[in-house]
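pinning this so it doesn't scroll away 📌
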Amino acid sequence: MKNHLKDYFPAIWTVDEWERCLQEDAGIQKIFREWPIEHQKEFLDLCTGVQGVDTLQPAFFQAVMDPGRLKDLLSVLFQKKIKQLERREGWREGQELICLASGLYLEFEDGERALVEIWKAGRMFSGQECACHSAQALTGWCQERQQEQGKSFKYSEVGRVCIVILLENSPTQTDKGTGEYLHTGRISFDTGLELGLLQEYQVLDLDLYQRENWEKDIQGRFDGWMSFLACRRPEKIVQLIKTYPCFKGIYEEIYGICRDVQRILHIFGEGLRCREKDQNRRTVQEMQEVIERLTRQHEEDRKALELQDIENRQREDKISGQYREAMRRIEELEKMLA
């Protein structure tokens, strides 16, 4: 099979180059051979360009998404021009979500401010965790502004906090039949009351985007960024860099990272550990759900048996009462006949 990506990115490994690398370094060979065959193939497909790079791998995302690229991505996402982006934090710990970027302080050209965090959600996705990260970010921002401004601080001048969630390989179903893969959420009131509350969520369903657009041409800047985040097929990557050449530089940096053997082995190994951890959590959750279901069923059966036992005792008492009454009547009749 022809490697179309290598035509555009000469740094991509060939299989022969990788085999020579293994032969020359026993340490690298040991790490590589310890992986299951399917993971070895996945790694080779990545490094040799048979499959595209997972750009949502935290190590790749954080290495190539500099402030300029983040500014472009978020401008497209919010559909507003960003005057300035300042990155104050690079990482926050998540439980079921994986942090890709945090502490992104935005100032839009219209003067509005916002604090943005970008998280990746896979098999384990919790809206509750999203809400907690949003609350933590908002609290931290308010405290920081209070320290900076002192008595002049005003809550009305605190900008919004937006949590961006990238859904990939997630069981969460966001498609309601409309084909919409970008969902914007804000706290609202059922009466339509507007109070300018600060917390906002952007959920991008990358799985749905791929299903809906894998055969379509890339049209528009938003479509370009969605393709970069979601698509792993080489032909789609080629289409992307032809439509928007600026993405070629990002991929060149990623494939440059892939040439650093120790670094790419570490990145790939971390990805495998994250996936295993995610799968283990999912398995535990499924087992807990089964246990809870069986516990509920057991409790229902126990209550049903208790009810049946009560009914049986009541039936026995009734029958016993009828028997005693019948015997009493027989005795009375026998006395009358005597």
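📌 and the second one:
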Amino acid sequence: MAVAGGWIGGVGHASSLANDPDTDALGDPGPAGLSYASPRVSRAMTIPPAAPAAESPAERVSTPVDGVDVLGAISPSRAGDFMACPLMYRFRTIDRLPEQPSPDAARGTLVHKVLEDLFDLPALDRTPERAGDMLEPTWQALLAAEPELEEMFGESGPDVTAWLASCRTVLDRYFDLEDPRRLEPADRELYVEALLDSKLLLRGFVDRVDVAPDGRIRIVDYKSGKSPGEGYEAKALFQMKFYALVIWRLRGVVPSVLQLVYLGNGEILRYEPDEDDLRATERKVEAVWAAITRAQETGDWQPSPSRLCDWCSFHEFCPTKGGTIPPLPERTTPAVDASVDESSD
């Protein structure tokens, strides 16, 4: 099928995905609701984790939490932490315990950064080869900013050359899903925040925002892992609905499409939200915040064992793993760093 026009950014013209069976002639996903797609784009063209105590980038631009006008702030990352395991949330947000860098998280950070910077290039230069050439210098820049990342490699870790090759594989898969030469995002790594009537501040970073000529908004998030299995989409979409809620509060427009791009297995998950969806998300976020507040008041941060424990950095402090919970630090305002959760996926 022909590639249809649909999404533009600050300049130029962008298109929907090519050969996407769920896309109609206007570049819109077909039926409302959830859809998967594994589109292919032809390349036959002649034109060629930092220590938790470190300051969040949001701290430099975010509305401060004063406990009166702003009761607290939360990101989808930290809300997801609490829903997964309140004790893990405490260790990350209250105790701010250090976490060892992981190859998977670092791969996500590296690929995200390359995809962000790719759109700084002229459209015709956004090729798989050029993106691959960006990997090594981008990795060196990350190492300069976070030297501890080198600790991942060595006798007990992966070979750095093999690891960089795996990053290239994930990056190449992006070009099977979208053609960045035909996209001009309105925003990349966009910091957003919105204050709810309850005085809870929602904040976070959005990977990409596309805007169509008629004003429709598409929120795009890159995931370096695999798409969730059937029945597990709701958890994956919570982050996207969170961002859609913030955009709605900021701009008065409900985003038309929420799009998760899974580079681990080359699938796209799309959802079309409506106002009822976003009101329900607002109620859910406020309920999570109320639970966080109760836990802080009582000091009762319960562990929640699950398969996610295999990837947790806090086994030595977790009673379900035979560890000892450290004493709580002095009480602080329950503000939450808005972190870039995409980078660890």
